[in-house]
Amino acid sequence: MIAGDACRNCRHRNGYSIVELLVVLAIVCILLASAVPVFQHFIQGQRLRTASNALFMAVNLARSEAIHRGRRVDLVPLDNMDWKHGWLVFIDENNNQRPDSHETVLHTHAVKIADLQITPRFTDSKVQYVAYSGTGRSHGNAGRQVAQSGHWLLELGPYKRKVVINFLGRPRTCDPLKDKISC
To answer: What total of structural domains would you count in the chain?
Structure first.
């Protein structure tokens, strides 16, 4: 009987008290508040890598199409002189660095990343495009014998990436924060 009397005084609870729920909710809020800035930096880094890979792909496309077609193919910014809005690859038949209605556009890429900065630095600083001849070499306005080399620096928040074009016109990507010597 003693055991039965003890059970009659036992209270079975089928849930949690409001205090317990508030404590758990406070802990979850603190964890989320500390994780959100880290997650935002992670997203910025991924967006920057995506944009630099898309630009790298466009450079490779322009070069390979110039070799394949045996003629000039240009990579130019979508917005006259600003690369941060995107770029396009086209067959420039009249060498004016802008796609005309009769010229074939091979690829267009619009960039919609707020605060993305893209700064071009090439051997011919007046040129805001990269042209490839049928041999796959890059050149500027000075002629096909003068190579156009340099890079685009892409910046978003604390992150940086470069798309580099060497003297032969071959592109590569690098991180100037991690590889300060060769980038």
So the answer is: 1
Alpha helix ranges (H) inside 14-165: 18-69
Structural domain boundaries, residue 131: 45-174
Quick check: 76 and 120 in contact, CB under 8 A?
A: no
Task: Tell me, yes or no, whether 84 lies in a domain.
Answer: yes
Coil/strand/helix, residue 79: strand
- CATH code for the domain of 118: 3.55.40.10
Rounded Cα–Cα distance for residues 55 and 53 (Å): 5
- 80 inside domain: yes
For residues 73 and 137, the answer to whether their CB atoms sit within 8 Å is no
10 Å CB burial of residue 163 (0-12, 13-18, 19+) is buried
| CA 83 – CA 129 distance, rounded (Å) | 10
Q: Report yes or no on 182 lying in a domain.
A: no
Provide the phi-psi class of 70: left if phi over 0, else alpha when psi is between -120 and 50, else beta. left
pTM across the whole model: 0.78
- The pLDDT tens digits for 77-93 are 988 778 989 999 999 88
